[in-house]
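In the design runs reported in the main text, the only information available to the sequence generator was the tokenized backbone. The following block is the verbatim input for one such run; it is reproduced so that readers can re-run the procedure and compare outputs position by position.
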């Protein structure tokens, strides 16, 4: 007799999330079943709920970053380091799967985040195909999914507190080419901005400034590693620019990171950077509208290097785990401010969408 699993389903944009029953899958060779301990409600999930991502095959089971315990597997399996896995292991898995490894993006351009075959748990996998999202008591890990043991000293809440924001931030630091002593300005105090502040500090930045709000997020930014914070709601664009110039000796920042997802942030960010500096854009995961800048004044004359940062790759997943294990002094768990059960996810989406907390966690068994 088949067993059933409860999962929270997003039927369509703006439609209430529903808790439904799904059959526990029969595992093919190389497949596994993860008993979910924690998932997250991140900014991407709010975008999904608002219908701001194209090509989403609703209904879906959201929750693209998830961790838990390996409950069952069929055949011998190994983690990303090549170590054999065993039932009962605490695992995290990389949400991106089915990248082909053969197309131009994967092989020639070396941008697998742009692979046309790429799929992402909790975002591009329809609920009709099964348990492909973390807002469920169990998640089906299809053959080939990249998994890793959670380090013994890393709690489930710490991993999910960092979550997709931490993976993205690892990619941001890589794209930024940070050097020791660099001054860094981070626009945005959500999960991505907070994690980026922490990684910039751990990478040897000489000064880290976070611009955002509300006040409780800025307080957490200081704990994550920011030397200075600027309240977005209490300042004007001119005042923010003046403060950045003051903090950087009149030069502007070596690196500016956009983690806000606002067209106005982009317009400000190019002004914060010094001549010859770098600007990394990571927050525009959806189309939020056009920005107006002057190519001569804001880019060419400044010799500004602008770099996009889209998604993450398996190496960023592994590095994120290593960061969590090595730097347990950083309060990543604090980003996940509140935990919700499956029946309360509509409240979680409302709370996260209103920016009242940096991130909501999901415990499907509560």
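Verbatim output:
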């Amino acid at each position: 007799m088949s067993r059933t699993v409860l999962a929270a389903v997003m039927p369509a944009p703006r439609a209430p999330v529903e808790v439904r029953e799904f059959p526990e899958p029969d595992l093919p060779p190389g497949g596994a079943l993860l008993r979910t301990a924690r998932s997250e409600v991140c900014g991407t999930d709010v975008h999904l709920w608002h219908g701001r991502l194209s090509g989403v095959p609703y209904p879906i089971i959201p929750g693209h970053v998830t961790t838990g315990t390996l409950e069952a597997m069929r055949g011998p399996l190994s983690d990303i380091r090549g170590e054999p896995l065993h039932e009962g292991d605490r695992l995290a898995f990389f949400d991106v799967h089915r990248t082909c490894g053969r197309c131009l993006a994967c092989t020639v351009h070396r941008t697998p985040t742009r692979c046309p075959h790429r799929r992402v748990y909790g975002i591009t996998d329809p609920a009709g195909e099964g348990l492909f999202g973390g807002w469920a008591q169990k998640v089906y890990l299809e053959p080939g999914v990249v998994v890793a043991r959670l380090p013994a000293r890393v709690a489930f809440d710490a991993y999910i507190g960092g979550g997709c924001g931490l993976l993205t931030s690892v990619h941001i630091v890589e794209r930024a080419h940070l050097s020791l002593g660099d001054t860094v300005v981070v626009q945005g105090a959500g999960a991505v901005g907070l994690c980026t502040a922490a990684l910039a500090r751990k990478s040897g930045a000489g000064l880290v400034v976070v611009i955002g709000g509300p006040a409780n997020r800025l307080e957490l930014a200081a704990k994550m590693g920011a030397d200075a914070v600027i309240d977005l709601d209490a300042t004007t664009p001119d005042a923010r620019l003046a403060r950045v110039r003051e903090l950087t000796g009149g030069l502007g920042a070596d690196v500016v990171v956009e983690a806000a997802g606002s067209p106005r942030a982009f317009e400000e960010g190019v002004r914060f950077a010094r001549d010859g500096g770098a600007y990394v854009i990571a927050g525009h995961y959806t189309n939020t509208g056009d920005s107006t800048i002057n190519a001569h004044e804001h880019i060419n004359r400044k010799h500004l290097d602008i770099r996009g940062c889209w998604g993450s790759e398996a190496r960023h997943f592994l590095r994120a785990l290593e960061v969590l294990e090595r730097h347990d002094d950083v309060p990543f768990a604090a980003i996940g401010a509140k935990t919700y059960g499956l029946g309360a996810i509509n409240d979680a989406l409302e709370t996260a969408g209103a920016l009242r907390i940096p991130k909501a966690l999901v415990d499907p068994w509560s």
